[in-house]
Predict the 3D structure of the following.
Amino acid sequence: MNNWVENYREILPWSDYQTQVFDNLKTGKNLLIESKAGSGKTTLLEGIVASLLNQNPNHNILLLAFNKHIATELKTRERIPRECEVRTSHSMGYKLLRKHLPLLRETDSLKIPKLANEAIEKISFAESDLPKIIFNAGFEAKQRRSEFLRNLRKLVDMARNNFAQTDNELDAIREKYGFNSISKLERYWLYRCLRWILKKDEQLAKRGEIDYGDMLYLPHIWQIKPPKYHFVLVDEVQDVNTAQIRLYKSLVDRGATFIGVGDRYLTTTTNLYYLI
Ligand SMILES: Nc1ncnc2c1ncn2[C@@H]1O[C@H](COP(=O)(O)OP(=O)(O)OP(=O)(O)O)[C@@H](O)[C@H]1O
Ligand SMILES: [Mg+2]
C-alpha cells in the first residue's frame, strides 16, 4: 500500500494542475476543485486518496461517489485502497440511519406515493374544500386527482431535498424548480397534505420503514452525528442538492477536511463555497 502513489505515478504522469492539488493537500485546508468534463477529476480523487494514505496510513478517509455504479467500479477495480471507505451520499445517510434505528427494513419506494394517497383520503373527507378541487370536478375528477397526487409527490421530494417546510420556503423551492402553475386553493391543500406526509414519514421511519429520500433527509432532521473522518472526498459536486451539502457540513463539523471535485460553473448551482 505504501507504494500506491508511486505505482500511480508510473501509470499516469500527473499534470501540473493535478500535482498542484497534491501540494495543496499538505495545507490541510478544504478544497473545491473545478475542471471540465473528462479532465481527470475522478482519477485525481484516486491520486488524492493514495497521497493522503502515503502521508499517514492511519488517515480515515471517506470517498463519496456520484452513484452506486461508480462507487462499485472504484471498489471492484481496486482503484482505491481498501483502507478508504467508498460509498454514495445516500448510502452514507443509510449508514447513519442504521445506527440510529435498530429495526431498519428494506427501502420502500412506494412509501411516499402510499402516504400521498392516504393524505388526501384522510384530510379531504374531514374538510370541505379539498373534495371540491379534487373529486367533484365532474368528468375531470380522476384526472385532477392524479394530477394533484403527482404534484404532491413531487413537492414532498423537493421539500425533503431542501428541508423546506414553511409556506415561504415551499414557495421558494417551487419557484426554483419552475413548479408554479397551481391555483391558490391547490397550493393551500398541497402544503397541508405535504406537512401531514412529512410527519407520517418520520413516524414510519421510526418503525423502520424508509425510502430513498429519507436517507439524506432524516439524518439531518434528527441531527444524527456522523462518525469522525480525517478527510471527506466528493466527486461530481456540481450536481449535489441541499440535503447532500448538509451531510458534508455535518462531516466537516466533526473535523473532516472537505475535498470536492466537479465540473466548472458548479458555484452557480450549489452553495458549497461556504464549506471552505
Ligand atoms: N494525468 C493524466 N494523464 C493521463 N491520463 C489521465 C490523467 N488523468 C486522468 N487521465 C485519464 O483521463 C480519462 C478521464 O479521467 P476521469 O474519468 O478521471 O475524468 P473526469 O474529469 O472524472 O471525467 P467525467 O467528467 O466524465 O467525470 C481517464 O481515462 C483517465 O485515466
Ligand atoms: Mg469523473
